[in-house]
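idk why but the lab printer keeps eating my pages so im just putting this in chat instead. protein + 3-isopropylmalic acid:
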Amino acid sequence: MAAARTLRIGLIPGDGIGREVIPAGRRILEALPASLGLKFSFVDLEAGWQTFQNTGAALPEKTVDTLKAECDGALFGAVSSPTTPTKGYSSPIVALRKRLDLYANVRPVKSVAPTPAFPDPIDLVIVRENTEDLYVKEEKTYDTPNGKVAEAIKRISERASFRIAKMAGEIAVRRQNVRNTTGDAVGKQAMVTITHKSNVLSQTDGLFRQAARAALEAPQFKNAGVKIDEQIVDSMVYKLFREPSTYDVVVAPNLYGDILSDGAAALVGSLGLVPSANVGDGFAIGEPCHGSAPDIQGKGIANPIATLRSVALMLEFLEQEEAAALIYKAVDGNLAEGKLLSPDMGGKATTDQVTEDVIRRL
Amino acid sequence: MAAARTLRIGLIPGDGIGREVIPAGRRILEALPASLGLKFSFVDLEAGWQTFQNTGAALPEKTVDTLKAECDGALFGAVSSPTTPTKGYSSPIVALRKRLDLYANVRPVKSVAPTPAFPDPIDLVIVRENTEDLYVKEEKTYDTPNGKVAEAIKRISERASFRIAKMAGEIAVRRQNVRNTTGDAVGKQAMVTITHKSNVLSQTDGLFRQAARAALEAPQFKNAGVKIDEQIVDSMVYKLFREPSTYDVVVAPNLYGDILSDGAAALVGSLGLVPSANVGDGFAIGEPCHGSAPDIQGKGIANPIATLRSVALMLEFLEQEEAAALIYKAVDGNLAEGKLLSPDMGGKATTDQVTEDVIRRL
Ligand SMILES: CC(C)[C@H](C(=O)O)[C@@H](O)C(=O)O
Ligand SMILES: CC(C)[C@H](C(=O)O)[C@@H](O)C(=O)O
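predcted complex ->
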């Protein structure tokens, strides 16, 4: 059993339905059985478009400082973007990933039930590099006789590519262990698929590919039987939709990972199901993959599942696997029964009703 | 009727199954009815990995010169890439697009029949910018105390963004005219969806978005009722898989267009169905979207449909709409009957049998 301790969790609801799902995340943490020997304390923190409009900063220093000084982990909801470029505004979650060196964005995607299009279970995880690539946001614009030209830097480092592939390998091993323990899908090949576009970007994506291979060729992965696979990013999107059940762990540079994880989410029915964790050394922020969804904001019908799973994912990376497993199982129970589902899943349940149903199953 | 003339077509089979499908493209051009008043002459040209191994150049100057000096259009098969980075080798199709300023890559994607996953017809076209973005391939690598770092330039110009969006608008109008003429899907909203990631890349993708909007706000499009829509690229991939039938024309910078078109191809069952044309002012190269497929090379079972449709697409951009329409109809007839299909479509027919069946239907 994990060591008993109190974990301090920063709650950053952000905008829109972020403000409706993050409270659900808090509720499930508070509802975990006492037998786990885990306690939680919470601190409310601000970030987002509303915060920017109120304070002039989308990510106040106080939020960063409090996370660094006091917290073990955090939950981040979603933020709205301005509809036109706004001076001084830039995405707080992108900034947070860099400021806290949360170098991995881990996004597990799992199907609820077989469908005609996908009769075989989908159970894969996208491991997205979270600090560099085009997300360094080094851009410039200049005038030419033919009009404006803008340039952005795509930066790929050997170090970041190596460490993200290493994490992907570790996740593949851990998933294999879970399969062997639970008896679920035993025999599924542990595999890491390296995604890149080195046929065009021979230096940047070539470096990603090479560093990722080097990381995955380490004895710890070879001995565990982790297969190294590769896909060019366009072909990866194609295969993800043609044969998703053949994939296990997919590792990708930041931007491809962003695109692939939305694509994978589409396969399992709703972005409202897909969690993520932004992970660094000893720190994790759980973040549902969906956006702030202004169209349904305030209606109390946002799907809390992505957030509840993000809570579990955060706990996994804080080495509280037992607590994580309880939440996953409760969520799977709610989905398998299929009686209390939110509207994005074809149901009628509210955020609160879904959350309460999951809590009942803990 | 289009003016009677002889069109000279360069044939660049490339590698692998490129050598099997390009002859099918030639056959269908030769089989077009004489009543069209069209003649064709052909010139065989080399490019690709095999050519690189034989001559040291993946795209010999002679190929470029002949296309420029003699040809009205061309057909390009597919090329293999070396499995490890090879000094001096770089993709000949990427080079050709730039050398001939074929600034648009047009990729129509159309479903064959309703499926449980997609009951509504899918009929969309990806219009991909074809000359810039990360495909400028300006890369450098340097050493740091923490290992190698590589950088690539993503370059977006106002001029290229404007002209690709203008072409997307023109295609939307043309498609609407075809719907009104054929009576097919009349009432489908003519729409261009601008894809970008300006929430992160405010300058580069911001410029693409802004220039594309400016192009599409022109009276010629407004008066024709072309709606301007926008999607962030990750959300675009999600929506493409959730509600593909709602899209009409999707315009995107080079790399997103590359990824989106493979994604769209997955929706309709096989890359073997999806054509493309690389289009510049007065010149077009038809190119099937699939690769060189070394796994089935030499077996005579490659699906020629993507190439036959690419022939039609090339003809459209050479203003031979009547000939193009005949080929599209013949292909649709073959697919609708579903008796002579290649193995990627679940059938048993060879490349030749499919080609002959389509020719019979001209
Ligand atoms: C909102 C946006 C900046 C963000 C990203 O691109 O990383 C989002 O798409 C995500 O995937 O978390
Ligand atoms: C082979 C490769 C260079 C090419 C590209 O990225 O453009 C291909 O994927 C395509 O879509 O034509």
